[in-house]
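quick one, 186 residues, struct below
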Amino acid sequence: RGVPPSAVRILVDPGHGGVDTGALSPHGWCEKDVNLSQARAIRDALRKEGFQVLMTRDDDSFPSLYSRPKLAYDEHVDVFISVHHNACRADRNPREVRHTTTYASNERGLALAAAIQKRIAAVLPDIKNSGAQTKSLAVCRNPAVPSCLLEVDFINLPEAEEASWDPERQKKVAAAVAQGVLDWMK
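---
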């Protein structure tokens, strides 16, 4: 509270990477790639607001699952945000389960997740908003750093696959994340 964005360090984590493709879209596009593209947009939106922003990866590398929150701790960041795109099992209809949500593993992260998710839901009104939820995720368990994991959309749904790659939508989501962080800081 009362801290300017220029004094806040944020680590943005594009989920998956390298040999870990994450989910695959109907056209065979990898979640790791759309996560990186969306994370770069989030980085840029946060920097535009004056935040200091680091990335766990800015290429097709694979930082290990536990090195990601460790980097947040080692770099003394104030916020950790992991960026993902969801998918459902092959026996489920993605149109029926499609939603956006933000996860956290503890109360500190849940307040951050709720602020971000509220803003994301506002810019993605056609997608069911599942709100901020508590879930035990390795990248969010760091008790020293408020952490959350965004599930922006369902990559295995054709229209969501296309929307997820749209630069204009990525900018809207990124601006929503930045505004959510600002809301959380109040």
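The two ends are 6 Å apart (CA to CA).
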